[in-house]
Structures are given as structure tokens and as C-alpha cells.
């Protein structure tokens, strides 16, 4: 059992709880950096996709997990990031090193504008509003065909940066390292946000808006900031997804992507950075596991191939139902329970992580 003695308030906002935790994260960083030397190009592409999903997941996690606002329209902001990044490069001649952050800012500004009239919405009403935004975004891409390419799609050029070239098929290792660097920057940014006063304001608004107002938190402004930061990070993920896909259309970032993003962070574990990564691993590697399992079953049965339409969606939906019923805290929540059990054994209480009510008494006045 490890005891962490806190002697100042700085210990509550420390980047790592203790040196042992920092060591294990450093070891994990060494492994992910060396990954291209250990696996083939196909698996490198899958690992790159997992990191892109993790970036988008962290963006949505800030909104849903930290500030408590439900969104079913984040695919629209992925599209804003992807299209604006390519348009800046191909039509305005802006290099990637500038177009990439600008695409994130474009998505962030779009999110802030949309958040202005929706800050007073809660629960299902906010979900419906963001769902409508996702649907409208697909139509808007088609309407703006001279700029976006419409249903014919738009081509994302290879990334040129500091004399190096990054692409999914020609230079997969380089693209992986580039996405990894972006992931680490976003991770550091996310970690510092939740340690800052605005991050604590996010948590206050999530837990109880009435109590947050009583403590002097401007709820409307806090929600708008959360929405803007969330869309900014999601826009960066969308820009990278555009380069990963190389060609994308209005159907690439459809409503299914929005729902998948939300399900991803629920399965991974709401309210934690780890949950975004666990969910991204499930989303990214589940099709790969299904494909390998399907090929293995086909060989055992002595048939050419087995094709079951909608199998991936059905399995992921089943996983979601299982987690909601038996582990609402997600994969990371299960890991916390296992770790706590061994840390406190034999003094672990069965109801230590009992599900709490989703509202406080002060929330009943709404």
C-alpha cells in the first residue's frame, strides 16, 4: 500500500502523484516512441489512428467528462478542422505548421459561437441541439461545394514540415511520430487545464450549477469556454484524421462518428484522461481484432471468408450496454476498483464505489 503525504496545496495539483507514477509513464513513453521499430507498417497505421481517436476523445472529454455537457455533434467540429486545414494549405497557400493550429482555432471559434445560444440548455435538449448541428454540417459541406468539394470530396496533401514529409502510405513512421507529438502536447495542455482554476470551475458546473453560481462561477461563460476548448482539440484531431484518410467527403464525418466519440469516452471512463485513451484503443483496435478473429474462425471451418454486416457496430453496442449496466465508470473505473481493492485489502468495502445520484438537492430547483 502506498501513502502519499500532502504537506501543501501544491500536492493537489502536482503533475504526477509520486515518483513511481512518473517512472511508469516515462517507460510507457519510451515504448510508444519505439513502436515503429517493433511492428509493421499496417499496425503502425492502426496505432496512428488510435492516437487520433485519443485526441478527439480528449476534446470531447473536456466537454462531457469535465464540464458535464452532452454533445452528439462533435463530428461537425472534426469536419471543420479537417476541411479548414486542407483549404488553408491548398487554396490559401498556408504551410501546415500554421494551417494546423489555425484549423483548431477555427473549430474552437465555431464551437464558441454555437455555445452562446446553447449555454442554458441541459441534458437531452443540449444533446438534440448538438445532434442538429452535426446533421446541418453535412448539408453545409455539400452546399459549399466550390470550397469543400461537395460529395466529390477533398484531397489532403502530404504534410511538409521542416524538410520532412509525412503521409499514411508513403511515410507511415513519420506520420505516427508527428501524431504522437501532437497527442503529447494536447495531453499536457489537457492536464494543465484541469489543474487550473478554469478546470475546477468546469468540475463545479458539472457537479452542481446552482452551487457553482453560489461560489461565484459564471456558469454561462464557463460552459462557453469548455465548448470552445473542446472544439479546438477536436478540430486538431479532425485535421489529422483528414490527412490520415487522405480523401474525405461530407459522409466521412457523419453522425455515426459523433455517436462513436461519445460512446468511446463512456466505455473508456468519463472524467479522466485515461478514459479517452482506453476508449480510443477499443475503437481503433476492435475492427482489427474482429478481422483476425473472423479469419481464424474461417480457417477452422475450412471456408474462404466470413462476412457479417454490422458486426463491429453490434459488438461495440453490446460492450456499451454491458458497461452501462455493470461498470458505469468504464474501463478506467474498473482498473481503479481493482487497484483500490489490492491497496486496501483486507479493508476494502464492497460499496466503496457505489453509484451515486446524478444530481444534488440544490439541482431540484431547476
From TrEMBL:
Q: Pfam families under this entry?
A: BPD_transp_2 (PF02653)
Q: Which UniProt keywords apply?
A: Cell membrane, Membrane, Transmembrane, Transmembrane helix
Q: Does the keyword Lipoprotein apply?
A: no
Location of this chain's protein in the cell:
Cell membrane
Transmembrane segment boundaries: 21-39, 45-64, 71-88, 94-116, 123-144, 175-193, 225-246, 252-270, 277-294, 314-333
Q: Which GO terms describe its molecular function?
A: branched-chain amino acid transmembrane transporter activity
The record gives the membrane topology as: Multi-pass membrane protein
Say if the entry is tagged with keyword Nucleotide-binding: no
- GO cellular component: a single term: plasma membrane
This protein's source sits in the domain of life called: Bacteria
Its recorded name reads: Branched-chain amino acid ABC transporter permease
Amino acid at each position: 500500500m502506498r501513502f502519499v503525504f500532502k504537506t501543501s496545496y501544491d500536492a493537489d495539483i502536482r503533475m504526477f502523484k509520486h515518483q513511481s507514477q512518473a517512472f511508469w509513464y516515462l517507460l510507457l513513453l519510451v515504448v510508444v516512441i519505439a513502436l515503429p521499430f517493433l511492428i509493421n507498417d499496417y499496425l503502425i497505421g492502426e496505432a496512428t489512428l488510435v492516437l487520433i481517436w485519443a485526441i478527439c476523445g480528449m476534446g470531447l472529454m473536456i466537454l462531457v467528462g469535465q464540464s458535464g455537457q452532452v454533445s452528439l455533434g462533435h463530428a461537425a467540429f472534426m469536419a471543420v478542422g479537417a476541411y479548414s486545414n486542407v483549404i488553408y494549405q491548398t487554396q490559401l497557400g498556408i504551410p501546415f505548421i500554421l494551417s494546423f493550429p489555425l484549423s483548431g482555432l477555427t473549430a474552437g471559434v465555431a464551437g464558441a459561437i454555437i455555445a452562446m445560444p446553447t449555454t442554458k440548455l441541459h441534458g437531452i435538449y443540449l444533446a438534440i441541439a448538438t445532434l442538429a448541428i452535426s446533421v446541418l454540417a453535412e448539408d453545409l459541406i455539400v452546399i459549399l461545394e466550390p470550397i469543400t468539394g461537395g460529395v466529390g470530396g477533398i484531397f489532403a496533401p502530404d504534410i511538409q514540415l521542416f524538410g520532412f514529409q509525412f503521409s499514411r502510405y508513403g511515410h507511415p513512421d513519420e506520420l505516427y511520430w508527428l501524431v504522437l507529438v501532437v497527442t503529447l502536447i494536447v495531453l499536457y495542455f489537457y492536464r494543465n487545464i484541469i489543474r487550473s482554476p478554469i478546470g475546477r470551475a468546469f468540475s463545479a458546473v458539472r457537479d452542481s450549477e446552482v452551487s457553482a453560481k453560489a461560489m461565484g462561477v459564471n456558469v454561462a461563460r464557463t460552459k462557453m469556454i469548455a465548448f470552445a476548448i473542446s472544439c479546438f482539440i477536436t478540430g486538431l484531431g479532425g485535421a489529422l484524421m483528414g490527412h490520415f484518410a487522405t480523401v474525405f467527403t461530407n459522409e466521412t464525418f457523419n453522425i455515426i462518428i459523433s455517436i462513436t466519440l461519445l460512446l468511446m469516452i463512456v466505455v473508456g471512463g468519463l472524467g479522466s484522461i485515461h478514459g479517452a485513451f482506453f476508449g480510443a484503443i477499443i475503437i481503433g483496435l476492435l475492427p482489427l481484432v474482429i478481422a483476425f478473429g473472423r479469419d481464424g474462425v474461417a480457417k477452422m471451418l475450412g471456408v474462404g471468408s466470413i462476412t457479417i454486416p454490422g458486426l463491429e457496430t453490434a459488438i461495440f453496442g453490446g460492450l456499451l450496454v454491458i458497461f452501462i449496466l455493470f461498470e458505469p465508470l468504464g474501463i478506467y473505473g474498473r482498473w481503479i476498483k481493482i487497484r483500490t481493492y489490492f491497496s486496501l485489502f483486507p479493508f476494502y468495502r464492497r460499496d466503496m464505489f457505489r453509484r451515486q445520484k446524478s444530481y444534488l438537492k440544490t439541482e431540484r430547483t431547476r
